[in-house]
Design a protein that fits this description.
There is one protein chain. By secondary structure, the protein is of the alpha/beta class. It folds into 3 domains: about 150 residues, YbaK protein (Alpha-Beta Complex), CATH 3.90.960.10; about 210 residues, 3-Layer(aba) Sandwich (Rossmann fold); about 100 residues, Orthogonal Bundle (Tyrosyl-Transfer RNA Synthetase). Helix content is about 45%, strand content about 15%. It contains 20 helices and 15 strands. The strands form 5 sheets. The protein has a 5-stranded mixed sheet. A 3-stranded antiparallel sheet has the order 1-8-7, with helices on both faces. A 3-stranded parallel sheet has the order 11-12-13. The longest helix has 29 residues. It binds adenosine-5'-tetraphosphate. Adenosine-5'-tetraphosphate binds next to helix 6.
């Protein structure tokens, strides 16, 4: 049950015009634990820092993934001294426990870093350890006397990791053919990082992960090879990247078992990804499925990889990998990095059904990389839309629709576009550019939109992007010797690294 502290705060914020939701969870202090349990990431949460600037206290709201710049705040306020408030000072100012600071701190001036508005929906403290506040970031501008400022540097985690990390790891399950979500959310990141030439990149077909949900052996055997061919056709260079099957390096499973000694069953059971898969396959709630995130941590950490190009859906698993790295380092003195996600522009590709993400195992949700123009057209044609009649009619002549207010504001109407249409607009942005998306949004809201023409053009744009991939793929698939050699060579190179890590862990854990 939501406690009175959170309810009271929610009421005050509602009265200020800030619509909100209170999300319940276990009693937790660390933001990382809260977001993981709620199925979000640190990218979604905003911290309120209470700081002392010369003689005054101030509140600074910043995204949890950004780093505060003391220099910028000092310059902005024209102060000499700036520091984080002590726990006693924090309690006195907020009358709250550490770890529960709210967005609204009466009595002191509040500065909101502009990156807070980079996320539409954000999470923050409620004053209670058992609940979290959720609202639209734009609404925070309604807080009394706030000032929007630019006081943080780049996204902290990625920047520090990019500087220190030497290796990159990622993998894809062999549960079907690759789709646009896998390509834009993951493979594009593989390529980007390979191209930098700065890292040793290890890209895997995680075939053991494929047996954590129901599977057919013959299909798995065929699918895993197809994904290696997809990797090569997408442009991965086996001279630069190590390309492997997970099951060729059994050390992944060995290390996962050692890692399982530092994670609890309760933690694994709370993961949103686990709950989703159990819902999808209630008959297959297996130990293997529960262990999925531990094996994923092992896949990454066995190569001591600090950067992981994956879609945003994998963030809760990365949180587990970071946790395991921290615990192993603390308990056994290992030196695992805390891996972070390398995000691409297509970190979340919506399903063609308009509900949730594009997914191999969700019928009618995906476009495969191998689909021809006809197949793409048929799939895009099925994306659910509405009448497209236009909501507020054209603005009076000479008036920009963005500043024109009919019954409702233009900006608010953009947020209300139905999910199928919004998914189409997302694809338009990715394959035809942002300007085209803005144009479609504008006519959708004003004069009305003709979906037939739009879907035709979009299908052609998607196919134009996939065609060179498909041509390369056909050639590579014929060259069985080459594909076999890539897999053999990858396994040899990967095992050398994996054996070293397992040896080190065994020694540190007292097994050797
Ligand atoms: N819709 C998506 N948008 C962006 N990235 C996505 N990824 C998957 N779907 C999207 C990313 O693709 C990589 C490989 O995913 P996976 O094969 O490990 O498993 P998955 O995430 O479970 O992919 P599917 O298609 O949803 O498979 P099934 O249906 O078998 O579960 C990951 O980096 C993932 O983020």
């Amino acid at each position: 049950m939501i406690d009175q502290i959170s309810l009271g705060y929610s009421k005050i914020m509602t009265e200020m015009g800030i619509k909100n939701k209170i999300l319940e969870h276990d009693s937790l202090v660390e933001a990382a634990d809260v977001v993981a349990q709620l199925g979000y990431t640190l990218n979604d949460s905003v911290a309120t820092l209470i700081m002392k600037a010369d003689d005054n206290f101030i509140a600074v709201l910043r995204r949890d993934v950004t780093k505060i710049s003391f220099k910028k705040i000092k310059k902005l306020l024209g102060v000499e001294m700036l520091r984080i408030a002590t726990p006693e000072e924090f309690n006195k100012i907020t009358e709250l426990e550490i770890g529960t600071a709210r967005f609204y701190v009466p009595g002191i001036k509040t500065y909101i870093d502009k990156k807070v508005f980079g996320k539409k929906t954000i999470l923050g403290g409620t004053g209670s350890l058992t609940s979290t506040f959720q609202c639209q970031s734009e609404d925070l501008k309604k807080l009394p006397g706030i000032q929007v400022v630019d006081v943080t540097s780049e996204i902290e985690e990625v920047v520090t990791n990019l500087k220190t990390t030497k290796r990159v790891f990622s993998g894809i399950r062999a549960t079907g053919r690759l789709h646009l979500g896998n390509y834009l959310g993951a493979v594009k990141g593989f390529l980007e990082l390979e191209k930098t030439g700065k890292y040793e990149t290890v890209y895997c077909v995680v075939d053991i992960h494929s047996i954590t949900t129901p599977f057919k052996p013959d299909e798995l055997r065929a699918n895993k090879r197809e994904i290696i061919i997809d990797y090569l056709a997408a442009g991965l260079d086996p001279k630069k990247s190590i390309i492997i099957y997970q099951s060729d390096i059994p050390e992944h499973i060995e290390l996962a078992f050692y890692f399982s000694t530092v994670e609890t069953i309760a933690r694994m059971m709370h993961l949103p990804t686990y709950k989703e898969k159990v819902k999808q396959h209630p008959q297959a709630n297996t130990m293997a499925l529960l262990n999925y995130p531990i094996l994923m941590a092992s896949d990454i950490l066995i190569y001591k990889a600090g950067l992981v190009p994956v879609g945003i859906d994998q963030e809760p698993h990365l949180e587990v990998a970071r946790e395991i790295a921290r615990k192993m380092n603390q308990i056994y003195g290992t030196d695992f990095p805390e891996p972070v996600r390398f995000a691409t522009k297509g970190e979340y590709i919506p399903s063609l059904t308009g509900e949730g993400k594009m997914s191999k195992s969700v019928e009618n949700s995906y476009i495969n990389l191998t689909d021809n123009l006809d197949e793409i057209k048929k799939k895009i044609a099925k994306v659910p839309t509405d009448s497209g009649k236009g909501i507020m009619g054209p603005p009076p002549k000479g008036i920009d629709p963005k500043t024109y207010e009919g019954k409702e504001k233009y900006s608010e109407l953009v947020g209300k576009i139905p999910s199928g249409v919004a998914a189409l607009f997302e694809f338009v942005e990715l394959f035809q550019g942002l300007e085209k998306r803005k144009y479609y949004e504008k006519i959708y809201i004003t004069t009305g939109i003709k979906y037939g023409q739009m879907k035709q053009e979009l299908s052609e744009a998607i196919f134009a992007d996939l065609k060179p991939f498909q041509e390369r793929r056909a050639k590579i698939a014929e060259d069985t010797k080459y594909v076999d050699e890539v897999i053999r060579d990858g396994a040899e190179r990967a095992r050398k690294i994996a054996r070293e890590t397992v040896q080190e862990v065994k020694e540190k854990m007292g097994l050797l």
